Amino acid sequence: MSLRVLIVGSGGREHALAWRLARSPLVDHVFVCPGNGGTAHELKSTNVDISATDFPALVSLAVANNVSLVLPGPEQPLVDGIEEPFRKVGIPVFGPSALAARMEGSKAFSKDFMARHKIPTAQFKVFKAEEVEQAIEYVKTCGFKTVLKASGLAAGKGVLIPETVDDAIAGLREMLVDHVFGAAGSEVVVEELLTGPEVSVLAFADGYTIVPLPAAQDHKRIGEGDTGPNTGGMGAYAPAPVATPAVMDQIMKEVLQPTISGMRKEGFPFVGMLFTGLMLTPSGPKVLEYNVRFGDPETEALMLLLSDDTDLAAVLLACAERRLDSVQVNTRPGFSVSVILASAGYPGSYAKGKQITVGDLPSGVVAFHAGTSQKGDQVVTSGGRVMAVTAYAPTLREALDLAYAGVEKVSFEGKAYRRDIAHRALTAEANKPGLTYAQAGVSVDAGNSLVDAIKPLVRSTRRAGADAEIGGFGGVFDLKAVGYTDPVLVSGTDGVGTKLRVAMDAGIHDTVGIDLVAMSVNDLLVQGAEPLYFLDYYACSKLDVPVATQVIKGVAEGCRQAACALIGGETAEMPGMYHDGLSIPHSFPKTALNEYSVGDYDLAGFAVGAVERHLILPQPNIVAGDVLLGIPSSGLHSNGFSLVRKVIALSGLTYASPCPWDAQTTLGRALLEPTRIYVKSLLRAAQAGLIKGMSHITGGGFIENVPRHGGVAPLEMARTFNNGIGMVLIVDPKNVDEVIRLLREAGEPDVYKIGAVTAASGVHMQNLDAWKV
Known about the structure:
By secondary structure, the chain is an alpha+beta fold. Among the domains are: 3-101, Rossmann fold, CATH 3.40.50.20; 123-193, Dna Ligase, domain 1 (2-Layer Sandwich), CATH 3.30.1490; 439-616 and 652-658, CATH 3.30.1330.10; 621-638 and 675-772, PurM-like C-terminal domain (Phosphoribosyl-aminoimidazole Synthetase, Chain A, domain 2, Alpha-Beta Complex), CATH 3.90.650. It is built from 23 helices and 33 strands. The strands form 10 sheets. It has a 5-stranded antiparallel sheet with strand order 11-14-17-22-19. A 4-stranded parallel sheet has the order 3-2-1-4. Strand 9 (198-206) and strand 10 (210-212) form a beta hairpin. The model is unreliable at 582-597 and 699-715 (pLDDT under 50).
C-alpha cells in the first residue's frame, strides 16, 4: 500500500501530524494546504497554497494527485462539512460529518446531547439573543457560580468566567446584546462553574470503537501561574499524572463509550479524533466540552508519545474505513512536553515577519512550526503562536528540561513563552503526602465503626465457655466449662453460595447471616455434635458499615438459634477484588439500606462443635429397614440458587414482584427466607442415642411452584432441591415414636416418615411424577 495524504491546515498541529505521517512506511507523500514554514521542509511533504476553506480546490488537488486519505486539522472546515465533498468523490476523510461536527460547532447541541445520554457534565441552560432578560434572571437565581460560553465557534476564546453575579450580567449583555463574539455568541450556554484539575483526552474513533490516548493538560492563560487572558494554548504535557488509570477507566466507561454509542444511535456516527475536555471534580470526571479534531498544542506532545510500532497512517485509515479494532494504538512509557513560543503582544496585536533561527536541538527535541511562513530563503513569524518546542523523556522533569533547552535554541525578535509548563503536576508531586491506607481504598475508621456497631450483637450470643467479646487477635472458648466426658471436636466451614447474589440484587441483607451459620452448624449436627462457637469472614471492596452490620446481625441471630457463641471474625476490605457499586434497580422498594448503590461482598463461616465419642454419627449399626424421618425445610435454604435465578429470569419476574405463592411479601424476601437451624429440635434426641444417622439436605424447594413456573424436570428437581425436606434422620423402627415425641417437645410439630434404608446402594426416588402438571 502506498498512501498519499492531504493535510488541511497551517498550524503546529498540522506540522506534528505531517512529521509523524512522514515516518510511516505506508505513506508515499503528504500534501499540506496551505502549510507553514516547517511543513515546507518536512520529509515527504509539499505545501500547496490552497485555503482550508476552499473545498472545490482541495478536492481538485486530491483527485489530480491520487490522494487516498484526507486529514483536516482545524475545526472550522469540519463544522462547515469538508467531509462531504471528498466522500462524494470516493476519498476517505479522517474526520466527522457536518452532523457529527455539531458536537464542537454548537455547545448548546452538545450539552443537550449529554443530557439525553446521561453523560456527566455541569448543570446548564441555553439562552438565545432575544432571551437576555431570562438569562440574567437565571444567573441571579441558579444558586451557583457560572461560566458563560458562546455556543458557536470562537477560536477557543468564547468563554467568560465571571467572579460575581454583576460580572455575569455584564458578560451576558456583551455576548447577547453587544455580540463581542459575533455570530458564535448569538446563543449562550450558562453553566455551573466546576472545580478541579482539567484534562484533555484525545481518542481515535471509527463510529463503533474508541481508543483514547494518554490524557494531556493544556495551559490556556498567557501568563505564568495561569494569569492573564486566554490563548489558543501556551503549552501542554502528557500523560497528566492526575488522570490515573482508574480515572481513565471511568472516563472511558462514563463518557467516551456512551458518547460514541449515543452519536451512532442518533444517526450521526463519529469518525475521527474526539477531543474531550474534562474537569476532574470531587464527584468524578465531568465533560466541559467536545472538540472534533486533534487539539493544539496537545497533538504536538502526543505525537512524540506514540510508540514506534504504532503507524499513524494505518490508524487514521482504519478509522476512516470503520475498522479501528484491526490496528494497534500503543504509546511508549515516559512524558512529552510542548512549550509554545509566541509573538510579543499575543493574544493581542503582534508584529509579523520576524526572522526565525533554529540552532542544533538536543536529542529528543522537535520544533514544530505553527505561525511561520517561508519568505525567500528565510522562515519568518506569521502568527501569534509561532512554534511548539516539544521533547520526550522518561520522566516529566527530564522532558521539561529538554524542552526548555530546545527553547533556548530558537531565536526571533519578541519571543515570549511560559516558563512554568506542567507546574500543576510538579506542585502536586512536591506536595503529595505519603500514601495512606485510605488512599488505597481501605477505611480503618469504617472498620472501627463496624466493630462498635456489632459488639452488642456479639454479646447476645454468650454461652457457657465463651464470653463473646471481640477485639482480640483470636477467639477463646473454655471447653472444660461445657462438661463433656470424652469429647471429640467437630468442625465445619461453608458459605451461602449464589443466594448471596439474590440478597445483593434485592437489597435485603439481614437474613444471609442466618444462612451462613445454618450451613455450618447443621453439618456439625449430622455428626451428633453440639455447636460451641462460630467465626465469620466478610469480604468486600469498600466497607459499607450499615450493610455489613445487617449481615452480622443475621450471623448473631443464627448463633442464638444454634446456641453457639460468636467469638470472632474477619472483615476484609480489599479494593478492586469485588464489584464496587451494584445499582439497585429502581423497581425495588426503597429501604434505609437500598436507597444507594451497594457493592458486592462475600461471606464464609467456620463452626466448631463437640460430641461424646460414643455418640458420633453415623453409628455403625444402620441396617435395612431403619426408618427415614423427614424434617421440613423453611424454603429454598442455600443451594440451587443458580438454577433459581435462571428460572426467575425466564419467568419475567423481578425480586420486587409479589411472591406468586404469598402475595403478602415480595419474591426476593420469600427466596431469602433463611435456612432452618435444627440444633435445638434435634440435639436432644441425638444426645440420647436415639438417632443412628442424619443427612443435611442442603438446598430448598419451591415444592409446588418451581414445577409450575420454571419448567424444571422432576428428576432435576430431586437432584437440585430438597423439595421441602431440610434434614433426614435414620432411626431404628422401635425408636420412631420416641424420637417423634422428643422432636415435638423441642418445637418440631411436623415430622414425616419419608422412606426406609434398603440393602441397595444409592438413593431411589419414587413418585416423581406427582410433581408434573
